[in-house]
Amino acid sequence: MAKYNTVMVGKKAVRIPIGEDGFVPEKDLLKRFDDWSAEDGGNPKSNRGWKDYTNRAEVVLPKKSTPQQVAQWWVNPGCCDIEDIDVPGKAKHNVQHLSRSQKKAQARIPIISTASEEKAVRRNLARSFTEDEMDTLSRSKTQIRVYPRTQKATGTYVPVSSTITVNRQNAVEQSTITHESVHALRDHDKKRTGILKRSDSVVVEESLTVAEQLARSSSSDPSGYYWNCQVFDEKKRRWRLPTNKEALSMANEDHMLFTNGRGKGLKGETAMNSVRKNWSKSHISRLSYKSNGKMAINQAAEMYDGIDKISKASTKSTGSIKTTTKGTPILASLRAKTRSKIKKN
Ligand SMILES: [Zn+2]
User: How many structural domains comprise the chain?
Assistant: First the structure.
């Protein structure tokens, strides 16, 4: 049972959660900040949470604070800041919970986030990547930031500074950090060649990054890009964008394809080989995004040897969805998600 302390702020009695250690738990601080950000006149675009986070207040409270200490903030988080919660704290390098090899590789990758976000991100990195791959990221001075953003993307990768950012709400999912780290590896891993290397074409880069993200993940967690994947409408004899159901089916089928039918995430060479072998028969290869309607595979056919175009006139089975695919439990839970909630990164 959650415990509370009642603290007087002026004449107002405020109930504030208190943990076993006498401090306000991190999850409650995050929730309060989130609620306050959302309360912003019902206008998410004004983004006051993000403004607060990026502007350092004169008074910054330590992350471990008592209900008494945070009382003013609890009433109005705009009044001052709490380290890690609504102002970035120092970069963290906590690797105690990782295996010995991962410890060494990840210790030099700084993460700016709360302690629990850092833990979730590092655990996901260890699930998706080999120690060599983590080593490549640390040698290229990649840094990771977990932000309280409400913008369109769940994450970003900025090549110039080799910075990965992950939206706070998405920090615990394996898919987001995996996707952005794949972008970073495609950029920095000198051993990569051909389609596994960073491409200047946005549609090719995103399509192959989603493919590799799925190869490395143990859940099919659908990328928003599936809603931009073209499908061939057998009745109307033309390509069109998918329905929600089709987008989810495609994500699920591709996940099975890229994990060699097992659904369990792969790492290192095995993951990359799967992308090399399976990409041109995947649904995500038909991604059309910022490409004037051109599919990734058709663009890639002009850039790499050994990749064939899909003709728009073709009725190849590669363009249609198996309508017999029954929803798996994962799919069923995802069906509730609406299109607008599933974001691109
Ligand atoms: Zn991306």
Answer: 3
